[in-house]
Amino acid sequence: MMSPALQPMTYEDLSQVHREEMKGKSLSACRPDLYRAIADLMVRLRQDYEREIAKDPDSIMSEGANQRRKNAETLVKAIMAVRAKKICTRAVNSADGANEELSALTPEEREYYAQIVELSRRQLSLVDRYRGKKTVTSHIDEPSELPESKVPEHEARIVQEDTYKIPETPAATDVPMTVDAMEDAFDEPFLEESFDDIPEPEPFSPQAVAPEAEKIEEPVTEKVETMVLRVLEDLPPFVGPDRDYELHKEDIVTLPTSMALALINSQKAVAINPGP
Questions:
Q1: How many CB atoms sit inside 10 A of residue 4's CB?
Q2: Angle separating helix axes 206-213 and 60-95, nearest 10 degrees
Q3: Counting runs of H as helices and runs of E as strands, what totals does the chain give?
Q4: pLDDT at position 39 over 90
Q5: By three-state DSSP, how is residue 254 classified?
Q6: Is the model more confident about 262 or about 243?
Q7: Beta strands in 136-263 (DSSP E)
Q8: CA angle 202–206–209, rounded 5-degree value
Q9: Does 171 fall in a domain?
């Protein structure tokens, strides 16, 4: 069973984590029990919604609790996806020799980071291993020290096929050449091979493409339709999708359409046409 968070997280805390994570390329510093705190919050939001549903499924309180629960789910998915992408980018850089700062990672993220670094090092050394060289971290052209029996069969076959033997040059022999043969040899045109048209390959570095991986797009959120209402009586405080409400008689307020309809149907408010 998951251990409880050190300190309860609120919906406002979750929104702040989302804002911090989306505005920069670097991992934002966070509490070490981030994921446990998020899980506790999601459980509490679900319990709040079920409690309001049990009281009155058509009430504005139950609709507000449901909207807040859904919004929290969207924020959590965005936070986890963005942080995972940033961690992967830093893991590839570290596998290529960079010195990455890890103070912003939670214990769970450090374990994830270590696994990605190990997989990235193996991927970056793939060509060297196929050529029978040491891993990319050594950069030394030496034969692999792995025993032949431990080399995978498909890798050994590729190495064997890619190994070229230089044919031995037969010993030169003294062959007499006549004057006519020498003249015929010099009459043949000599074609000089040009290498100008051969493009030179550009060096590849995972660090050069790493910034592209950090282009994080903010999640597209659905635009919530709203209505303008005039409140007909004092209402008890209730929870909305992004804030808490405490409305009184004759208040003019803008609410999400689903919540506004709940008040109108219960004859606690009337719609107002804001006009052009």
A1: 12
A2: 170
A3: 9, 5
A4: yes
A5: strand
A6: 262
A7: 226-231, 238-239, 244-245, 252-256
A8: 80
A9: no
